[in-house]
Design goal:
By secondary structure, the protein is mostly helical. The chain is built from seven helices and no strands. The protein has one domain. Helix 1 crosses helix 7. The longest helix has 30 residues.
Length: about 180
């Protein structure tokens, strides 16, 4: 490792620099899905009038259907060493990959914005700081973690997984 900042984005990662393992993905994906934005998004199905049982069916079915193309890309990842959106050029062509690329960029911007607002409101509620300052703090820390990159994201994911398990176990017991 030459420095603490992420050096690769869409460039292939050389075999000598690859060090992840499938088991390290559990905490990464668990932590990214057990947070306030995912919880609020999941409850929207019930808040708009869907019965909780059918909301659960919709969430499980949506995850199952979304997992299939993601699994196919995940199988290619170790062989190609490039991110998913770059891999999709092989299936869709350079121009055909534009629509998924635009959609995923919009999705990431929306996810970052909604996560920053919800997380910032939570920070403001906990600390007593103004909501705008909480949002800026939360967004800044999130961006810093992304800029530093892979290793810090995985370390934070392990910590967030532990915290999430404790918090959600406590909330489940309270319910």
């Amino acid at each position: 490792m030459a420095g603490p900042l992420e050096r690769r984005s869409i460039d292939p990662v050389p075999d000598a620099e690859r060090h992840g393992h499938p088991r390290s993905l559990f905490t990464l994906w668990f932590a990214s899905n057990m947070q306030i934005t995912a919880a609020v998004t999941g409850t929207l199905t019930v808040l708009v009038g869907l019965h909780p049982l059918w909301a659960l069916v919709a969430v499980v079915l949506g995850n199952a259907l979304g997992a299939v193309p993601m699994a196919l890309h995940a199988a290619q990842g170790p062989k190609l060493g490039v991110p998913q959106m770059i891999q999709s050029r092989a299936q869709f062509g350079v121009y055909g990959a534009v629509l998924p690329l635009v959609l995923v960029v919009l999705m990431y911007i929306g996810y970052f914005a909604s996560g920053s607002v919800l997380g910032g409101q939570a920070v403001a509620q906990i600390t007593g700081m103004p909501v705008d300052a909480g949002i800026l703090l939360y967004a800044g820390l999130s961006a810093l973690i992304a800029i530093v990159g892979y290793r810090l994201i995985h370390r934070f994911g392990r910590l967030a997984t532990l915290v999430s398990v404790v918090v959600f176990a406590y909330l489940s017991a309270c319910l």
